[in-house]
């Protein structure tokens, strides 16, 4: 019999690719949407046929979750609330992320789901000050004053998930996947997510390149990692970092210029001193949240995911170029505000 997998948040960037990968491997897929009107857009984006069905459920409410779980063998809990930091107070994201995760786990355990794979983030595995290489043994300090509301929500949501499982005595198991910055091709213009960084570079905004950097994972490799964590007996009760290569923003810009030619004509070439970025951050709240990462080279080790699950991320340059080409086709980069 065909196994059924519930994917939460089907309109999202990562969730959409999880749906695609599951369908390609022969699973029946049910995905949640908050707005039923978005079902057909998800179906078109993922190429879903009769094996793709929908459930209406929201992380902020209990309604719909038991029905969504009914008959499912596995759950990929990918959905997480997004929003602008500073709007709605410090708990505007934390409450929905933590409480929504617990709603999913309660419904999954009631339904007897075999395994839940939760999408966390390396925001939950980041040391407070040091640079270097981090792994799954590290937990971010949720009281770090430099944490944005989103990053704090990811820490507290994953902690709540493991606390729930520690108190649970049943057959459902949990694994968590912690991605770094997620890039790669878009399935539809509406789920840009972190890809906006590439869109802004293509649009020439900002006109200079600050000294920021991050590790990169391709969304297609991340979807594959979720499926590996879903089915491997060795993944039960484990955290797995999904990370590829670290790249400075200036290196990403250079890759775009060298590989895309005239299509990357607006990509900035000039750097900017750190002191200027810090001064500007006094007047730009979005930039202020990033200044603790300025000049910080923090990589994340995917050695555990490689060893236990056979994870094999593709080169960062391939991911960045495929991402940019999908944006160029959209086209999403034109007219983006700074």
UniProtKB/TrEMBL annotation:
Pfam families assigned: Epimerase (PF01370)
Entry-linked Gene3D superfamilies: NAD(P)-binding Rossmann-like Domain
InterPro entries: Epimerase_deHydtase (IPR001509), NAD(P)-bd_dom_sf (IPR036291), NAD(P)_dehydrat-like (IPR050425)
Family label: Belongs to the NAD(P)-dependent epimerase/dehydratase family. Dihydroflavonol-4-reductase subfamily.
Keywords recorded for this protein, A-Z: Oxidoreductase
Annotated NAD-dependent epimerase/dehydratase domain residues: 5-236
Name of the featured protein: Aldehyde reductase
Record has Nucleotide-binding as a keyword: no
